[in-house]
């Protein structure tokens, strides 16, 4: 079952903290949770207006194609069309959601550390008229070079942030709870995951995964959070329907073998520069910016940083030199 909480726009700070605490506990115990309305709906509504209509005829597929791998045996390539790497062009409201304070607070509670990094960051738009999005149950085995060690200060967490109401009519993901799937199937024990191949099961191989699955539905602003040892899948979207989400992941700062998207090349992107100039030191630390007081910083380095990000307030860094 999902954990459902009221819209945070109508909650006190104490109530938000309580909701985050309860959700983090379920995530630790069950491997997944839906926190309903963690991000205010007006924030996701503003972001949704910035998503542009697709141009699949001229845009490249959303995943790299390799001739030595028959990916169609696992997933259809077309399912990943409509995937846009962060930062989304000309979308300041949308891009800010990747570092929303409520999401950051939940990640800290779930991973039990304040030293976090964002290692995956994408927008994923699905259109029922474009592709068949039906998938087999699978575990995300391509987020880490090593088995993921869950527990305080080591693990990672994967997110879907719903930009609009998401239910069975427009592609809410399915999850197989432990009562249906049992052990994670990786042969390395409960609570571990993230590395290796073969973590896909079809209905004829494990019908109980499908018969016992649940829908991770949620209102606009809801956050579906799951671990890489949790069986889940995408489903078909009817023609005429759309689904828009942010798909991203946080990891513990001391686990760099967990990775997916590289952010360093973004320094040449004007939209990323604009994003950085609106961030706090805590938010920038998610992208591996050293915090104020770190030994990396010198007066010369700060002056050079100011030339890259002229609108960034560097006073917190200069104060602690």
Structural summary, described in words:
The relative contact order is 0.18. 24% of the residues lie in helices and 17% in strands. The protein is an alpha+beta fold and 321 residues long. Helix 1 (13-30) crosses helix 4 (101-111). The strands form four sheets. A six-stranded antiparallel β-sheet has the order 1-11-6-13-3-2, with helices on one face. Mean pLDDT is 86; it is low at 1-9, 61-73 and 185-189. The protein folds into two domains: 8-258, q2cbj1_9rhob like domain (Jelly Rolls, Sandwich); 265-321, no CATH class.
The computed structural class is alpha+beta
Distance between the termini: 50 Å
- Strand adjacency order, main sheet: 1-11-6-13-3-2
Number of strands: 13
CATH architecture of the largest domain: Sandwich
Beta-strand content estimate: 15-25%
Low-confidence stretches: 1-9, 61-73, 185-189
Question: What characteristic shape results from the CA principal axes?
Answer: globular
Helix content: 10-25%
Largest sheet data: 6 strands, antiparallel
Q: Return Rg in Å.
A: 20 Å
Tell me the number of helical segments per DSSP (H or I, 4 or more residues long): 10
Give the averaged pLDDT, no decimals: 86
CATH superfamily of the largest domain: q2cbj1_9rhob like domain
The ordered string of helix (H) and strand (E) elements is HEHEHHEEEEEHEEHEEEEHHHH
Q: What is the CATH topology descriptor of the largest domain? A: Jelly Rolls
Query: In CATH, what is the class of the largest domain?
Result: Mainly Beta
Number of separate structural domains: 2
